[in-house]
Design brief:
mainly alpha; two-stranded antiparallel sheet
Length: about 130
């Protein structure tokens, strides 16, 4: 049985018979971008600002690099993907899982509601990203 590391902002991703705890930490971001030779933002946004859907291999790299569950190799993730698709899953399902993990990890920044909940000495602060 795989050991599970519970970290803040961790998302459970499950497909093709495996379940992983995933979190896009700073290290995971650097490793994924190094392997992809592109920024993660660049996978989702065209130069003109239009949204695009990244290739599935890129999504699997992000899943692999963000996985915090020990004992799961990249080949396990690839084989789980094959099984997931063969069992009727879709690449859009994988896209939604990765998008949810990125959002939960704080990759897209904080929503305005979450940012307003933060306080410094009891005074609410607005996000500098808004």
């Amino acid at each position: 049985m795989a050991n599970v590391t519970k970290l803040p902002n961790t998302t459970e991703i499950s497909f093709g018979g495996i379940t992983m705890q995933c979190r896009l930490s700073g290290k995971a971001t650097l490793m994924a971008e190094k392997r992809l030779k592109e920024s993660i933002v660049g996978l989702f946004v065209k130069g003109e600002g239009e949204v695009k859907f990244p290739p599935i291999h890129s999504l699997l790299v992000i899943i692999h690099e963000s996985n915090t569950t020990s004992g799961i190799k990249e080949s396990d993730i690839v084989n789980a993907f094959y099984k997931f698709i063969d069992d009727g899953g879709s690449t859009m399902d994988i896209f939604e899982m990765v998008n949810g993990m990125l959002d939960n990890s704080g990759f897209f920044g904080k929503s305005k509601d979450k940012a307003n909940e933060e306080t410094l000495d009891g005074v609410a602060m607005d996000s500098i990203l808004d």
